[in-house]
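Researcher: Structure for this, please.
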Amino acid sequence: MTPTSDMSSLAPDTRLSESLEDYLEAILSIEGEKQAARPKDIARRLSVSPPSVTAALQNLAARGLVNYAPYDLVTLTARGRRLASDVRRRHEVLRRFFNDLLKLDLREADDVACHMEHALPPHVLTRLVEFMDFVNDSPCGGAAWSPRTGFGPRPVAPSSDTAPTTLD
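Model: Predicted structure, token format:
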């Protein structure tokens, strides 16, 4: 599985801030629960003030990422949904890594993932998923990891055609 990132396709001056990525992720989550988000739902989810939500929604709407009008429901556009799903995917992979492999408690794993998700490039996410799959699928062998080539089949030791010798 190769994660993709629509975030990397944004020009440097149009890339989303961590805060705006958090808004997209919150809207996606609320939409999943209620079909659409209200600004006060977003404010509650992110623990921010209503004026902060309004400013963020105006910014996201200007970028074509949300459908927003004052006093109305908020929904993600198709592009906004792709970006929000990408943020969520990075968050979930990191949380799983910290909780399942590093054995951090779930709350701490979630908090650390939330901070790191914004800086994780697609190729690093891909390698992290490969590593986690490797550990989960073959913790004692079956695959080998090389810094140069990544994951691949473990080399097989040459077999001997001769029978084992015994000491008499």
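Researcher: Any notable elements?
Model: The domain at 16-119 is CATH 1.10.10.10 (Arc Repressor Mutant, subunit A). Residues 1-5 have pLDDT under 50 and may be disordered.
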